[in-house]
Each structure stands twice: as structure tokens, then as C-alpha cells.
Amino acid sequence: MNRKPVYLAVYDTFADWETGHTTAHLARAGFPVRTVGPTTAEVRSLGGLRVRPDLASAELRPEDAALLILPGADLWDAGDDLAPFARAARAFLDAGVPVAAICGATLGLAREGLLDDRDHTSAVSFYLAASGYAGGERYVEADAVTDRGLVTAGPTEPVAFAREVLELLGVYEGEVLDAWYRLFHDSDADAYAVLQQAAAR
């Protein structure tokens, strides 16, 4: 089955640990994962990884994609350098293509107005409130939230973030999705057997 690619945004100070579960399991499910930067110049993650993006943000086309993933980064808190990625998220959502944002990327989406009319979460409610956005009443105290094609999560929930994305893209569902989460979030050994049985079908 040919699947459209998933685009992982990369920019200086991106939090490399926040999206690893998501991209690894999407890749295993057959989704090509491509990196998109502000330009195609090399960027460096918070963990010191050097990444040369496959394409620049100006080249992103929602119709060519299955998903856009926006990780957190110090730059989201530092100013508007990453605003083009928030605008790209708007274009994706307007085109009916899902977006997944974690940690500081949720602040960028709040500034862009994308959380004003969607249920969402982040690190804490007052983090987003500082943006002056109008969506405070839609904030949900949860590990991760999906609403109308937009996944949001706080910085301590990379596994819950991945769970929402894997469900949204139909990689896992029902008891298999639950088992995947229990294995990777709770180290539940019993969940491994459920995944093995599902893989053997």
C-alpha cells in the first residue's frame, strides 16, 4: 500500500525525544517520514542531533501529505521565528489534513488562533493563556487531545501523543491500540502478547 508521507518539522532546538514513538511506529506502518525545516540548511536538536531537512517549509503541500508533526522547541517560546510552521498547520487543517503538535508547538498554534475553537491540551493552561488566545475554555486537562484533525499534547506525554496519532491515521485501534499504549507507557508485559497476536493475523 502506497501511503502519503508524514512530515516531521525540524528546527533548531527541536525536542527530539517528543516525537520518536510517533515517527518510528508510523514508519513501521508504511508511512514515509520526511523532515521539513525552515530551509534545507542543517538544524540541531536540543539533544545535539544534526538534521538536514528533506525540504523547506515553503515547499510543503497539504495534498501531498498524510500528517504534519510539530515538536516543541525553545524557539517557540523565544519569538515568531517558527510562525511559518503554525501557518502551515492552518493550511493543512483547512485542507482536511491532520496536524499533531506537542509541547511548545501548541503555543505557536494558540498564537495562530488554531486552538480557539478546538479542544486541546498542552503543558499547563496558563502556558497557553500567556499567548492571549481565545481558546482557554476549550483547554482539557488530559495527556493528549484530538479534535477535528488536530492532536495536542504536553511535553511529558510523547507516548500518549503517539497513541492519538496512531489512532487518527488508523495504524492501531481498539484493544490493539490500548495494548500498544500499555506496553510503551506502562511497561505492561501482558500487552506484548496482544500486539504479537495482532501482528500474526
How does this structure look, described?
By secondary structure, the protein is α/β, with parallel strands linked by helices. The protein is built from eight helices and nine strands. The protein has a seven-stranded mixed beta sheet with strand order 5-2-1-6-7-9-8, with helices on both faces. Helix 1 links the parallel strand 1 and strand 2. Helix 1 packs parallel to helix 6, helix 3 packs across helix 4 and helix 6 packs antiparallel against helix 7 (174-186). The chain is globular. The chain starts with 5 loop residues before the first strand and ends with a helix. 40% of the residues are buried.
The overall pLDDT average reads 97
- What is the end-to-end distance? 17 Å
Rounded to the nearest angstrom, the radius of gyration is 16 Å
Beta-strand content estimate = 15-25%
H and E string? EHEEEEEHHEHHEEHHH
SS elements, strand count:
9
Structural class: alpha/beta
Number of helices: 8
Q: Strands across the major sheet, in which order?
A: 5-2-1-6-7-9-8
The main pleated sheet reads as: 7 strands, mixed
